[in-house]
Amino acid sequence: xxxxxxxxxxxxxxSVLVQLVYAAYYFWPFALRRPAETAEPAPQHEQAHPVxxxxxxxxxxxxxxxxxxxxxxxxxxxxxxxxxxxRSDDDTGLYTQQLTQYYPNVRLxxxxxxxxxxxPKKYALTLGIKVARYPYLLFTDADCQPSSNQWLRHxxxxxxxxxxxxxxxxxxxxxxxxxxxxxxxxxxxxxxxxLSFAERGQPYMGVGRNLAYTKATFMAxxxxxxxxxxxxxxxxxxxQDAVQLGRRASVVTAAEAQTISQAPDSWGQWWRQKxxxxxxxxxxxxxxxxxxxxxxxxxxLFYVGTLVAFVVPEPEWVALxxxxxxxxxxxxxxxxxxxxxxxxRQPLWLFPVLDAGYFFAYSLLTASLVLNRNPSRWK
Length: 379
Description:
- By secondary structure, the protein is of the alpha/beta class.
- It folds into two domains: 7-32 and 287-369, no CATH class; 43-264, Spore Coat Polysaccharide Biosynthesis Protein SpsA, Chain A, CATH 3.90.550.10.
- It is built from 13 helices and nine strands.
- The protein has helices at residues 7-32, 43-47, 61-72, 92-102, 120-131, 151-157, 178-199, 215-220, 236-244, 267-278, 286-311, 317-341, 351-371, and strands spanning 51-57, 79-86, 106-111, 136-141, 144-146, 165-167, 211-214, 249-251, 259-261.
- Strands 3-2-1-4-7-6-8 form a seven-stranded mixed sheet, with helices on both faces. Strands 5-9 form a two-stranded antiparallel sheet.
- Strand 1 (51-57), helix 3 and strand 2 form a beta-alpha-beta unit.
- The longest helix is centred in the first third of the chain and has 26 residues, at 7-32.
- The radius of gyration is 22 Å and the shape is elongated.
- It comes from Hymenobacter jeollabukensis.
């Protein structure tokens, strides 16, 4: 009897094949690679790579009380901290002014108002970059914590070899609850995508809580000029513009080079955050949109095809079980290896559930952006 599969089964097979191609070409080479990421002291080298750490903050006094000591204790030969007080109503400015009296490498930029029609965070970062003394810029957020006092050293070493951009990883702290697990899984998956693509020579984004680039790169892109009115994109759209100009990116994944953040503690907060981040995607280069979109679409069609397969007459259970078994084992193994490379261990047994939940949420987020293109404002 000739071998026959229904259109739904062929859809499932095709979607899994696409995912296997991504796993074989991008994800597995990245996940299995073990780069030498030592950070032995090299004072002469570090003197040649002085760094300005730039932090934009609004009403973030409590977060800064934890962050600033960690930044000031970084084990690096020459650096400064540029803190931008963006229209704060609390004592952020006063706290930083007190630090400047004791630490000459702390500088304060105070913003009283933002010009109409300009994204506030991009305006704040622009002013901070303009006053930065050093040619190498390292960015994080006020609610982050470097994972070690070697964070700056590892990230700065990413500029070795002539890189213009250094892409780091910023996981969220582990906490109780399903939301935290979903947020951490989504962060792992996003990190796996943009870091593995970059290692294949196809960088398309970075995350502002752990990102570095040269001041010359910022000047070459004319700063955030091409997207200055968009609320999001101070990180990924800057990388997009820089890559378009031929700037090179490197990847740093050492455990000591991470910044840890507290995950959103409510579904509404996470939803607004994701809408803001995803709204920048329409400005990506066409090739990047195709590359990312194909991966997302293949995963989405897999779940749609599975739902359809259960309701059609005489489901092909053997084919469905085989496809599901192949995909599930590949997904779990890939994410497990990626979590080791990124030093972000997560519960393996939940990966299939979180994967399905993420792509369901992604579909809803995409639909919401199509229906309402106004993302939430930053702070």
